[in-house]
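Fold it.
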Amino acid sequence: MNRRQATLALLAPGASLLTAPFGVFAQQQGKVWRIGILSNFARPPSLESGMMAEFARGMRELGYVEGRNFVIEWRFAEGKTERFQELATQLVQLNVDVMIAASPAGVGAAKRATATIPIVMVAVGDPVGAGLVASLSRPGGNITGLSNLSADVSVKYLELLRLAIPKLARVAVLTNPASVLGRTYAERIEGAAKTLGVKVLPLEAQTATQIEAAFRAMTRERVGAIVVTPEALFGAQAPRIAELAVKNRLPAMFWTRDHVVSGGLMSYGQDNAEHYRRTAAYVDRIVKGAKPGDLPVEQARKLQLVINRRTARALGLAIPQELLLRTDEVIE
């Protein structure tokens, strides 16, 4: 079969990319690449700004034009991890050329849905421990992408809160029991708490209703702050969590800047918007013929501390100068 015949066969009605070798991608000149994005969040009012727009921006920086040589198929889980599998299957049925997914649950659903369509992960903590890739340097299979350092820096959440609230004696740690890394976050934060002389109240939530219940428990137990661990549900519910935190006068620590913009007090970690932009480089290499399993997984290039001074004022909290000097960005 020559190149033209192979391309026509792939594009014919009913043809599937599930059986196409990765090398075929490089042979298709002039193709409009179909990129599936499996998002943890609800569909935003606009896809032209914010974190969700960064992938398309990255593609444009590489010379691609949306609508001319690539299109995006969006699927939004709205923080409901049980929807990931259905949505990942939909993207496979659309014969997307590459799938982008965030969180271990989202990437795991994509992995179960296809063993051949390339998957680029975004901001996934410990993808090796989660069984998503064989190693960071040689991921193998059909998955590569970007890993965050959230589990590694989780102890910093408590240290930074203690700087903001010197008399902090008790902190709530919110985790999702269904999260692969939830237990790791809780254990590391509890270890740091013993060193700092802070008591930890572990709380779990798997639904928006359970998040509300968790805040009622925090009020009863008189905690002084909350650490919200990285999780798809909590990312989707971040504006509501931030609202509840202010309502209950609880300083909240998140893992990425986006949630401080939504009203959380502080975050420490990578910029997820940057991760989405960097996925474009992976997609570019894959559609030019690279095998995902041969592309090393990258980690965060920079960790940043972000503080929302407006939220601090609403909480009646004066941020110490020592902490402000360590801050990368203050949101007014």
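Confidence is low (pLDDT under 50) at residues 1-27.
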